[in-house]
Amino acid sequence: MSNSLENLEQSFQDRIDRGEKIEPKDWMPDRYRKTHIRQISQHAHSEIVGMLPEGNWITRAPSLRRKVALLAKVQDEAGHGLYLYSATETLGITRDELTEQLLAGKAKYSSIFNYPTLSWADIGAIGWLVDGAAIINQVMLTRTSFGPYARAMVRICKEESFHQRQGFEIMLTLCRGTEAQKQMAQYALDRWWWPCLMMFGPPDAESTHTEQSMKWKIKLKTNDELRQQMVDQTVPQAELLGLTIPDPHLKWNESRGHYDFGEIDWDEFWRVVKGNGPCNKERLEARRKAWEEGAWVREAALAYAEKEAERTAVSAAV
Ligand code: FAQ
What we know:
Strand order of the largest sheet: 1-2
Organism: Flavilitoribacter nigricans (strain ATCC 23147 / DSM 23189 / NBRC 102662 / NCIMB 1420 / SS-2)
Largest sheet: 2 strands, antiparallel
Radius of gyration: 22 Å
GO molecular function, one term: phenylacetyl-CoA 1,2-epoxidase activity
Low-confidence stretches: none
Structural class: mainly alpha
Bound molecules: Phenylacetyl coenzyme A
GO cellular component, one term: cytosol
Protein name: 1,2-phenylacetyl-CoA epoxidase subunit A
InterPro entries: Aromatic_CoA_ox/epox (IPR052703), Ferritin-like (IPR012347), Ferritin-like_SF (IPR009078), PaaA (IPR011881), PaaA_PaaC (IPR007814)
Strand content: under 5%
């Protein structure tokens, strides 16, 4: 490495260590830029693909109130995807390129959205557990070192906390309902619990990016630390609902001050990440179809923008 590059990298690291935010036009190491393009775009794709499992229930929500809340939640997720694509674009990549990476199967999105939503209780479980996990991860990211990402996270977290409460309220209503409704809630928890713990990524010992991302303060906590936080936070909530977490090894550990929990099936996690989960093909197919069917909207918007630009140029010339 040349001396000047070394100096640049050192003063960049010093800025990070002092807790300064890095802004898009600041000098940054190429790997810092690439890590952010990877992580923020995967996050954006997760929000967009994440609309699909819930979208499946909009037409079947059990009441008008539930339908309105679910519609608002799914629209928020589209908004989150858009802020995050914009934050990624500040790093010198276009939204079209990001979409192409997703549709070609080159960019990842969260494993959790490759599971099906089989009953209305799954909508409750997604809000309670998936948004619960997302908030734990994203509250940390409000303090991440890249300015546009950190700022986007502040607003996103506020909206996610409403999402989580609507999910918990669905679960609470089901758990206070008939025996069949309570069973539906339990069955949803049984299916979503382990995939939710997988959302935080592989164990620290197998995480390729954690060490460098912690150094750059992209991540302020490791995958395992956040996962533990999720377990500790959720167990009392499940108790309040009167539901059983499907883990026979779950036990309070007085000396650690945390819950111990059972082994996660990492083979399942990698299968899903590599494209072979229950709904991977269906999810990508839906995104491809939406992209193709939206072509005329993009063309029309472009044609309109060109016309407007011409009109402005003509009136400026007059
Ligand atoms: N799924 O070295 P690490 C939401 C990949 S938003 C798929 O530990 P890193 C809102 C990882 O990319 C949910 N792939 O990676 C909502 C890497 O592969 P690569 C999304 C995963 O980045 C709620 C490899 O494994 N949230 O839920 C997963 O340091 C309800 C090695 O892993 C975010 O994206 C996974 N779960 O840590 C919407 C938050 N985990 O890229 C609708 C931002 C890991 O080298 C309804 N992201 N991989 O090919 C992050 O905080 C981090 O990227 C982690 C992973 C923590 C996810």
